[in-house]
Amino acid sequence: MQTELHYDTVFDAQQHFRLLLDSMARPGKINTFPAMEIMPPVGLNQASALTGFALLNADTSYHIAGYNGADIAQYLLVNTASQQAGIDIAEYIFLPENHDGRGLEKARVGTPVYPEDSATLIAEAELISEHAIENSLGITLKGPGVNGEAQIFVSGINPALLDYLKEQNVEYPLGIDLIVTDRQNNLLCIPRSNAFTYIKTN
């Protein structure tokens, strides 16, 4: 497994980190990573890889849930120096498309003294859109960073994962943040501070 030669660990990482911060500060806003000449292993989309590059380093840990093979773990190790850890320890948890939330029960939700000591999910989806798309979930967000309500549509995300997120975030400020990426390099964030509902579209 080789280091990505076309990725600048300073310039690109800073640019992508700013996109992630903007998405987290403005829940429901869709941002897009610029296309890059990187080759993540099969099963990991480019946006999730770039999210990992921006957030992971030797002082952080991650967990891979629901993917097949060890290629993704090796790829993230080589390119970020971050180590994979148990789900009860990891700060970041990578999930494939349509993950149903099973196995995430031990993910960190923080403590009353240190609520920020919690996990962030990085979940892949097929497509994120501002407009209704076939076989998607219409997600409506309210709370900090949202002017009234924000609605987005996501295909390739399992409603059971969103139900799991709701359960974990019921005792805010404890809870888990969610970053969703898609095959078109889009991303959006649902912080634990925001309430949301969803409906299935046809």
TrEMBL record:
Keywords, in A-Z order: Lyase
GO biological process terms held by the UniProt record: organic phosphonate metabolic process
Molecular function (Gene Ontology), one example: lyase activity
Signal sequence extent: none
InterPro entries the record matches: PhnH-like_sp, Phosphonate_metab_PhnH
Keyword Lyase applies: yes
Source species, domain of life: Bacteria
Keyword Lyase: yes
UniProt xrefs under NCBIfam families: PhnH_redo (TIGR03292)
Protein name according to UniProt: Phosphonate C-P lyase system protein PhnH
